[in-house]
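Worked example

This section walks through a single chain of length 351. The input is the sequence exactly as stored; nothing has been trimmed or padded.
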Amino acid sequence: MNDLDELVAQAGRDFAAAAAPAALEDAKARFLGKSGQLTELLKGMAALPHEEKKTRGAEINQAKQAIEAALAARRQALADAELEAQLKAEALDVTLPGRQRGAGGLHPVSRTLERMEGIFGSMGFEVADGPEIETDWMSFTALNNPENHPARSMQDTFYVDMKDAEGRWYNLRPHTSPMQVRYARAHAAKYAAELAAGQAMPEIRVIAPGRTYRVDSDATHSPMFHQCEGLWIGANVSFKDLKSVLTDFFRRFFESDDLVLRFRPSFFPFTEPSAEVDIAFESGPLKGKWLEVGGCGQVHPNVVRNFGLDAEQWIGFAFGLGPDRLTMLRYGVNDLRQFYDGDLRFLSQFR
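Given that input, the structure is written out below as tokens.
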């Protein structure tokens, strides 16, 4: 074995003995550093005769490549060992069960809203959706409820410090009735063009479910609650149609054919005549008890005009139902506030 073979073998033994990257770098310096053994051999070539330099240089370069290969192999071995130790230290037992999230579900009021939309949709009612921040005109004036009208007292409660381009204040809508106005005004021009073209009298048949706001809080009321307003107007839409629609809706909603309706005379600025709607069951735990579930009436001519329609041509009815109260009745809940307390023990019953 010549001196270069011995040098390569010695480098391999020193690299193998290095148990850490720092020790390996020290071993490298002994062979490949500025004062390393191989470097000194390269420096000594200057003293060789010209004819020996070529042969000796090739031998030294070959030895250098062997040492660098041994160095790279040891570096990789140390890195692999370090990674394996790290993986062992941070090992996960994949046979253990993972952290699971409980199955979610729709909120009971959301279930009721979906049920209402499905039932009314089967009767030909479209669903209208719109902003929860409305102008005072949309919330009240357009619905025949002008400024300082006493009927406003329990409804014009949450206002926003902002006005529209015409100087009208914004508020959190106290009911979803503004959507009736928005829907009718959005389609009024189309209806007028159809009538002018000699087409049959169209109809507006729409419901507007959504969140509403009033200062009110007890076992059956909440400052934020839900409403489902309905509107059906056309050429000859009567109270008979109203009774038929609501009777069919409530019987399908509660899945009870023995349910009966009662209409009590009442007052709403936007309808005339107006009525409260009560229901009663002829069997079960609520047998014989009348329960108020909504209000209704024939749309007031002033409201029809604010729709942008001719009050001499259009007639029909509007109604408003409380999805929160219907949810309480359907599931036998006696305190509305439980729906909004966020108690998963209560809400998980409706999954």
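What to look for: Residues 82 and 234 are 81 Å apart (CA to CA).
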